[in-house]
Design goal:
Layout lengths: L4 E3 L4 E3 L16 E5 L8 E2 L2 E2 L2 E3 L19 E7 L7 H21 L5 E5 L11 H11 L3 E3 L18 H7 L4 E5 L2 E5 L3 E3 L6 E3 L3 H11 L7 E5 L4 H4 L3 H7 L6 E5 L6 E5 L2 E5 L20 E8 L2 E8 L9 E7 L2 E7 L8 E6 L2 E5 L1 E5 L2 H7 L16 E9 L6 E6 L5 E5 L1
Parallel strand pairs: 7-8, 8-9, 11-14, 14-15, 15-17
Antiparallel strand pairs: 1-2, 1-3, 3-6, 4-5, 7-18, 10-11, 12-13, 16-17, 18-19, 20-21, 21-25, 22-23, 22-26, 24-25, 26-27
Helix pairs in contact: 1-2
Length: 422
């Protein structure tokens, strides 16, 4: 096949009209990989993406491409952030809750092509549990791509250049790209290990930025570009300006990140970053993340270059996208609504005894359930370090004690309405 993109992580080339390519291998390169073109199957090993080959002195590598049996301009993908299992008890929770929930969601999406991406912290420093995560992927039964997280790194073996050894043995390169339909997917490693135990920062090293510039040369400016990494760019990457600069001229860019254990949508420079609530919630201590977002994952639907999405809470109904609470105050009551996947194009309205009262006031605040379950140095039981997280998706109103029924209707940017009432 002609015009297929191949890279060793340093150079990026295209195959000629006969499918041949020539690549001058960098001495530091460990892999050669194919950026799977649109319309072709993702090669996998037990559903783990296997788009790469180890070099090991080889002078010739061929990548077999198999056409999909259906068009892929419409397709779906799922983002898992931070499964972060530390022991077998965590694994049991993941297998009993997150995996069945994801399988149910996959089935609900119909027969379109679908893949998954785990945006890092696959495990919690216990690399033996990579195999348990692999079993989870196998059960979910869709191609899954992996991102390196800070808890997936090797410590005490040197600096950043040696910290990826175990991850690469299991999952291949830490940065690469692939295509599906009119979407171009990029995976990056934005965790820089600083050489001391657990000492890292959010940073994209020059080697990756140079590679990305070359990769993007083969991507149309009007493509849907989806960048997947661990540490959120807009709130956690020190050299984010260098990354954003490379994306100048691309008008349809979405970033998928994890790491924070809360849910937040950020829009800067026309780039939409989805910082996901986590599969493990607050480190497998209960049903929610630190900001009250349910344990869960992102679900994305691609139609050409259009992208739609929702957040799926583990074991929750698809329509459960807002949680409300009522506090008793002196001579009045207070309505608190947590709309965890809110962004500036949402509308959040409330009703008192079915009377429309307009939009709720947005304030930074704490989710009441997170305060109940996590506040203080003795909670949550077993792992007391999670604390309630101040967030910007809390909405408030005060009302008289005579009101019998309160209702909140949150409408997302796609016009879909979600209702909660007490």
């Amino acid at each position: 096949m002609a015009n297929v993109v191949i890279s060793d992580g340093f150079e990026v080339v295209q195959s000629d009209r006969d499918g041949n390519y020539t690549l001058t291998i960098n001495p530091l390169a460990k892999f050669v990989w194919v950026s799977t073109p649109a319309g072709y199957e993702f090669k996998t090993n037990s559903y783990l993406a296997k788009y790469y080959e180890q070099l090991e002195g080889k002078s010739s590598l061929n990548f077999e491409l198999i056409p999909l049996k259906q068009k892929d301009d419409k397709h779906n993908f799922i983002i898992w952030a931070d499964p972060q299992v530390k022991n077998k008890k965590d694994v049991e929770k993941m297998m009993a809750t997150s995996v069945p929930s994801t399988i149910k969601t996959i089935k609900s999406l119909g027969n379109l092509p679908i893949h998954g991406i785990c945006v890092g912290d696959i495990v919690w420093d216990n690399h033996a549990l990579f195999q348990d995560y692999n079993q989870a992927v196998q059960q979910m039964g869709i191609p899954f791509f992996q991102v390196l997280g800070n808890h997936d790194m090797d410590y005490r073996q040197g600096g950043d250049e040696t910290s990826d050894k175990t991850f690469m043995e299991n999952y291949g390169p830490t940065y690469y790209s692939f295509n599906r339909g009119k979407a171009h997917y990029i995976v990056m490693d934005d965790v820089r290990y600083l050489g001391n135990e657990r000492d890292y920062d959010g940073y994209v090293v020059d080697r990756q930025l140079n590679w990305l510039a070359k990769d993007l040369m083969f991507v149309a400016k009007d493509a849907l570009v989806i960048i997947n990494l661990h540490i959120p760019v807009f709130s956690g990457v020190k050299n984010k300006e260098e990354l954003v600069k490379l994306l100048a001229g691309y008008t349809n860019v979405h970033i998928m990140s994890g790491h924070t254990h809360f849910n937040r949508n950020m829009i800067e420079d026309q780039i939409f970053e989805h910082n996901h609530g986590t599969v493990c919630g607050a480190w497998w201590t209960g049903p929610i993340c630190e900001d009250g977002t349910p344990n869960g994952y992102g679900v994305y639907q691609v139609d050409g270059t259009k992208l739609k999405w929702f957040y799926q809470g583990t074991d929750l109904d698809r329509k459960e996208q807002v949680r409300i609470y009522v506090d008793e105050l002196t001579n009045q009551k207070r309505l608190i609504a947590n709309v965890w996947n809110w962004d500036p194009q949402w509308k959040v309205e409330y009703f008192l005894d079915e009377k429309p009262m307009g939009t709720l006031a947005q304030e930074k605040g704490y989710d009441p359930l997170s305060v109940k379950l996590m506040k203080g140095d003795k909670l949550p039981l077993g792992r007391a370090f999670p604390e309630p997280r101040l967030n910007d998706h809390i909405f408030l109103a005060h009302f008289p004690p005579s009101v019998k029924k309160v209702k909140v209707v949150a409408t997302d940017r796609f016009g879909e309405k979600f209702t909660a009432e007490i």
